[in-house]
Amino acid sequence: MRIIKISAFRVELPLHEGSYKWSGGNSVTVFDSTVVKVETDAGITGYGEVCPLGSSYLAAYAAGARAGLAELAPQLIGANPTELGALNRKMDHAMRGHPYVKSAIDMACWDILGKVTGQPVVTLLGGRHGEDFPLYRAISQDTPANMAGNVAGYRAEGYTKFQLKVGGDPDTDIERIHAVAAKLNRGDVLIADANTGWRQHEAVRIAHAVRDVDVYIEQPCMSYEECLAVRRHTDRPFVLDEVIDDLHMVLRGVADQAMDVINLKISKVGGLTKARQIRDLCVSLGIAMTIEDTWGGDIITAAIAHLAHSTPPELLFTATDFNSYVTVSIAEGAPQRKNGRLAASSRPGLGIEPRPEVLGPAVLTAS
Ligand code: MG
Asked: Which member of 37, 161, 165, 268 is catalytic?
């Protein structure tokens, strides 16, 4: 089987809540997502998606995804999409770095492999654990009172894990954590995600100020070294996200005992193939994971579901249903949140069928 054509489509994904705000005054109102379509000489087509969290979150941006695809896609014509290892090696040889550019192609080729074998991707990734898995709800940065006020509504949707967007003024962040913690029920999980927004001294101070709160601290500072210093000053459970962008960083973090949990984002590490490698290593090492992506719509949510559902539940900390945050559905068949939980599709491949009327005309084509 050979790839004969790769196309990309640009879709806008507005948010039900109008905007999403996180550390450093960053916000997004409409997500700019890119859907990739990979066609083969066997008549089987696969789909992937990549959606950076704006331009200031990681070293990734939406137009960059498409510029990278325009560069990379022509070099993949003729490649076998079902040989994921060989395909990833070819992509890494053709383009150094830029993992997010490769992610949607890799995802689309998993979709093809599933369709060729008649199996859902969750089966190919190791098999389903249980009926479904738990999600978290990100609480967009706002005043402490407003963030605390959002908990009840999200709990009514079934969520019991809440990730606060902090990483702002330290005193306000301490208030945010305390205000939301006061709204929690037994069994709820609270994560304070600073998204690199604190200086080291601020993070040490904040971690100390919330030492009596049952809260996880996520990615307090920009660099790995700063995060490690904070980790060594606090006994709160610790999540690393932005700095864990490849297998080497996982190994380094494990050697330093730098974290209890990692946040594994599919596009941050270059696709499902590499995310699975990191996932399997973390399972063996006992490192729990939040499994998600930077953002996305129905296709990314489907891919998250396949990877998360094939992860042993004791090491799946939580995952994200991005398609419930956005107002536009780009594909039929995507998993839908039920009582704060999600399940991977049983249909072959990713189990989704894009809506052509939403995707519109291709913005780039290689054949
Ligand atoms: Mg995070």
From this structure: 165
CATH class of 3-118+354-366: alpha beta
**Cα of 192 to ligand 1 centre, how many Å?**
9
Provide φ and ψ at 231, rounded to 5°: -50, -40
Per-residue pLDDT of 242-285, as tens digits, reads 999 999 999 999 999 999 999 999 999 999 999 999 999 999 99
pLDDT at residue 281, rounded to an integer: 98
Distance between CA atoms of residues 360 and 223, nearest Å: 40
Model pTM score: 0.98
**pLDDT tens per residue across span 34-81:** 999 999 999 999 999 999 999 999 999 999 999 999 999 999 999 999
Mean pLDDT of the chain: 98
Domain boundaries, the chain: 3-118+354-366, 123-350
Cα distance between residue 128 and residue 232, in whole Å: 36
By the CB criterion, residues less than 5 angstroms from ion ligand 1 are 193, 241, 263
Q: Residue 81: name the closest of 49, 120, 50, 107 by CA.
A: 107
Q: Is 274 a catalytic residue?
A: no
Contact 338, 54 (CB under 8 A): no
Provide the pLDDT for residue 82: 98
* 115 Cα–ligand 1 center, Å: 32
CB 2 within 8 A of CB 361: no
**Dist. CA 273–CA 262, nearest whole Å:** 17
Architecture of domain 123-350: Alpha-Beta Barrel (3.20)
Q: Which amino acid is at 147?
A: M
Say whether 105 sits in a helix, a strand or coil.
helix
Distance between first and last Cα of the chain = 15
CA–CA–CA angle 235, 240, 242 (5° rounding): 150
Calculate mean pLDDT across residues 215-225.
98
Annotated active-site residue 268? The verdict is no
Compute the distance from residue 6 Cα to the ligand 1 centre, in Å: 31
